[in-house]
Amino acid sequence: QAQLVETGGGLVQAGGSLKLSCAASGRTFGTYAMAWFRQTPGKDREFVAYISWNGLSTAYGDSVKGRFTISRDNAKKMVYLQANSLKPEDTAVYYCAAGRPAGIPGVVSGYDFWGQGTQVTVSS
User: Fold this and answer.
1) Radius of gyration over every alpha carbon of the chain, rounded to an integer in angstroms
2) Residue range 77-119, pLDDT digits in tens
3) 83 φ/ψ angles, rounded to the nearest 5 degrees
4) Which residue from 17, 32, 80, 81 has the fewest beta carbons nearer than 10 Å?
């Protein structure tokens, strides 16, 4: 079992940066792959970033490659998303997820645990 709580969202101007954090609880956190997804009203949840249980493998959605960086600290049970060069189209609710996805890391069904989300709004 894992419980996830996201923080760090807010309002930022285009071109600015935010660092989202995800605090996890549960003894098995270090065995889970972690990911960030985002969602806007009326749209499907979109894959943003993935990091393997040991931090050695990462993957990013095409729309954020080169701008966002995912990282984790297993000792602190934390996952981070550094979002730079933000654009208005990055506006969404950002969710942290934990699981053991088989195959493609960007599939929603590969994750068992989700946080409540944190709103990111980028103004133009």
Assistant:
1) 13
2) 999 999 999 999 999 999 999 998 888 899 999 999 999 999 9
3) -115, 115
4) 17
